[in-house]
Design a protein that fits this description.
By secondary structure, the chain is mainly α. It has one domain. Helices cover 74% and strands 0% of the residues. The protein has three helices and no strands. Helix 1 runs antiparallel to helix 3. It is elongated, with a radius of gyration of 15 Å.
């Protein structure tokens, strides 16, 4: 198997981790707010977007892609 070569540098990885962590934190904060307000489950399903962006950012940074 060929060695893995990173296509982003430390600055890019740091930016992706920060974006991912911010998106995950925003998703959690919005989820808590929506639960406190008693918003319908369908609206809470839209939170898949910030959680997906957060997970994608963190996983990409970790894989150095």
């Amino acid at each position: 198997m060929a060695p893995k070569i990173a296509n982003i540098g430390p600055r890019g990885r740091r930016r992706r981790v920060l974006l991912g962590a911010a998106a995950l934190a925003a998703g959690v904060a919005i989820l808590i707010l929506l639960l406190m307000l008693g918003v319908d489950r369908g609206w809470r399903a839209l939170l898949v977007v910030p959680f997906w962006v957060g997970a994608l950012g963190v996983l990409q940074a970790r894989a150095q892609t």
